[in-house]
Amino acid sequence: MKVAVIADENTSLAFRLIGIKEVYVARSKWDAEKAVKVVREMSHIGIVLIGESVADYIKEEIEEWKKSRRGIYPIIMIVPDIKSVEEEREDPLRGMIKRSIGVDILAKR
User: Fold this and answer.
1) Which of 44, 55, 60, 71 is most buried, judged by most C-beta within 10 A?
2) Going by DSSP bridges, is the β-strand pair 2-7/45-51 parallel, antiparallel, or unpaired?
3) b/e map of 38-72 (b: 16 or more CB within 10 Å)?
4) Helices and strands per DSSP (H, E), number in the chain
5) For the whole prediction, is pTM greater than 0.70?
6) Which CATH number does 2-83 carry?
């Protein structure tokens, strides 16, 4: 299984530098939708990382993709991108753990 990335230019460059080959730059909603269509057709992709700013363009497509996939692959993760400003938001991985076991194990007491 391989990794694919759909993100802005700077984030895409960072992933290319660490050796990921399936990297798609999305400068607009149209670019992001086109990249999702291409990646969905690839049967060898096990993990799809989508930059946060790009995910904002295509929330509906991502949700539809998650619902339509067979099995657990590909795993689709929204990752903070280089442009992201730190805000009060729930960590996507933390949210998945909370949904799967029903408890927020990282909650501060």
Assistant:
1) 55
2) parallel
3) ebbeeeebeebbbbbbbbebbeebbeebeeeeeee
4) 5, 4
5) yes
6) 3.40.50.10580
Structure tokens at 15: 């992933």
Give the SS3 label for residue 1: coil
Overall size of the chain counted in residues = 109
Q: Indicate the SS3 state at residue 48.
A: strand
**Coil, helix or strand at residue 72:** coil
* Burial tier of 8 (Cβ tally within 10 Å: 0-12, 13-18, 19+): buried
pLDDT digits (tens, 9 = 90+) for 28-83: 999 999 999 999 999 899 999 999 989 988 999 888 888 887 777 888 999 888 76
d(CA 104, CA 73): 25
With H, G, I as helix, E, B as strand and everything else as coil, classify residue 64.
helix
Cα–Cα distance for residue pair 30/58, rounded to 1 Å: 9
